[in-house]
Automatic annotation (TrEMBL):
Regions that span the bilayer: none
One annotated GO molecular function: ATP binding
Record keywords: ATP-binding, Cell cycle, Cell division, Nucleotide-binding
Source species of the chain: Sedimentisphaera salicampi
Domain Endonuclease GajA/Old nuclease/RecF-like AAA: 2-368
Pfam family, one: AAA_15
One GO BP: cell division
UniProt protein name: Cell division ATP-binding protein FtsE
InterPro entries: AAA_GajA/Old/RecF-like, Bact_Antivir_Def_Nuclease, P-loop_NTPase
Length: 464
């Protein structure tokens, strides 16, 4: 699957593909966050809002006969066409995704395409759709068959009342069959996360106070939720999602993720990184409990910036993540000491190896260099294994180069539409990745070499 963007913030034109672990690195103001937010917004739109059209004849046949077979072949052959249609709809929404002026995206293009042939999983899908009171429709895709069987669960005469529900349910199931493996459920952690953690209580108080005030107003036509949504519209979609997640953390804490159920050792590794654990009380109070003194309870504004920075990640891992998810983190190194940046890289490798896909943007040479080591480690090589044991690495942290894709946001050459010659501008250049040599990112190496050169010059001058 290829994602193409054009005139997206600083990025003039770029293409990238998603791997199990996708990394975009580069200097400031080179478009890393633009690419990240655009990708998250599209997956969110496609999974939750894009309506795949279903023919009127098919629905008519289902309503008349009570059952119908829906061939998937035509939809499958036209998957790129469906994606193009979805991208065209989504591009119109970019000003809302970024909470920016519409004129900023006048010439922007966002496209997702598949290189044919692209297979899709032939697993069984069986689901019922309906209202709060009763199920209306049953949809079943048998294993290894390219069709969906639709069966009405209501008597004739009542179906017409639910025509829109039936239309949406069939479209959603077709989309799930053909695309769910390509567009996993995303969870994004933006670079603005520390602010949401500090002001969580104030956000809740302000919202509740607003609701109390407007509920007492005589004008019953006034919609307080419309006002709240208008306030939220001033923030980019990922930031809004972070705020919503933090505000809803008491309910989040009642759930248990598959990591907590099956890989609790990863949660312990996370606690070692932050030096403690988070706790939500029955009164919806959020505290950090340090490992060195479990009797101490620190509020978020009393806690370190690293504790606040990793709050979303901690609750995601412990309470809601599912196998196959896409975890998106903008600058995971934010507020972290180099040692913890390395530990985060190792934690990410473990998550990838248990089925979580990860997408990050980063400025961190420590994170990249640590990933280099994890890629270069070969657990089947005895000398490598000795080094891993000596340095306290586990086999589960070893990372295959085939799972990693790295792009550098920087100047590069590309061909613009209508031009015969390549032009130079900001793009995303793929980095070379090798099982033996790791990731090659010149921008980091150049900065380090420059610092080394300056320090060596100073030492030589001091010795004269």
């Amino acid at each position: 699957m290829k994602i193409s963007v054009q005139n997206m913030g600083p990025i003039e034109k770029a293409e990238f593909e998603l791997g199990d672990f996708t990394i975009i690195c580069g200097k400031n103001n080179t478009g890393k966050t633009y690419a990240t937010y655009a990708l998250y917004g599209f997956i969110d739109f496609f999974n939750n809002h894009y309506h795949l059209d279903v023919s009127d004849n098919l629905i008519k046949s289902l309503l008349e006969d009570g059952t119908a077979e829906i061939p998937l072949e035509n939809y499958s052959k036209n998957r790129n066409g469906l994606l193009l249609e979805a991208c065209n709809e989504y591009t119109k929404l970019l000003p809302h995704v970024f909470a920016a002026n519409k004129s900023n995206f006048h010439n922007t293009k966002f496209q997702v395409s598949l290189e044919e042939p692209e297979n899709y999983p032939q697993n069984v899908i069986e689901v019922n759709y309906g209202t709060n009171k009763k199920n209306i429709l049953k949809l079943n895709k048998p294993k290894n068959e390219n069709k969906i069987i639709a069966s009405l669960l209501v008597q004739k005469g009542a179906q017409e009342l639910h025509r829109d529900l039936i239309d949406n349910a069939i479209g959603e199931t077709i989309r799930q069959v053909l695309f769910s493996h390509l567009f996993p459920k995303p969870f994004i952690i933006s670079a603005e996360r520390t602010g949401a953690a500090i002001f969580r209580s104030e956000l809740n108080f302000a919202r509740n106070r607003l609701l109390e005030e407007v509920s007492s107003m005589e004008n019953t036509s006034f919609n307080p939720f419309a006002l709240i949504n208008k306030v939220y519209a001033d923030y980019a979609l990922p930031v809004k999602r972070n705020v919503e997640f933090i505000r809803n953390i008491e309910n989040v804490a009642k759930k248990e993720s598959f990591v907590a159920a099956e890989h609790s050792e990863l949660l312990q590794e996370f606690c070692d990184i932050i030096g403690g654990s988070y706790k939500v009380t029955s009164n919806d109070e959020l505290y950090f409990i340090p490992n060195k003194d479990r009797r101490v309870k620190l509020t978020m504004d009393e806690s370190s910036s690293s504790v606040r920075s990793l709050l979303d990640l901690g609750f995601y891992l412990k309470h809601i993540c599912k196998k196959g998810d896409l975890l998106i983190v903008d600058e995971p190194e934010l507020n972290l000491h180099p040692e913890n940046q390395r530990k985060i890289a190792r934690l990410f490798a473990r998550l990838i190896n248990i089925g979580i896909k990860i997408f990050v943007t980063t400025h961190s040479d420590y994170l990249i260099k640590e990933l280099n080591s994890l890629i270069m480690f070969d657990p089947d090589n005895k000398s490598h294994l000795r080094i891993m044991e000596k340095e306290n690495y586990s086999k589960e942290e070893s990372l295959s180069a085939s799972k990693v894709k790295v792009y550098v946001a920087e100047k590069g050459k590309f061909l613009k539409e209508g031009n015969k010659r390549k032009t130079n501008g900001l793009t995303l250049n793929p980095a070379d990745i090798d099982d033996e040599l790791g990731i090659e990112v010149a921008s980091f190496d150049e900065s380090i070499e420059t610092m080394d050169r300056i320090q060596n010059s100073l030492l030589l001058e001091s010795g004269e």
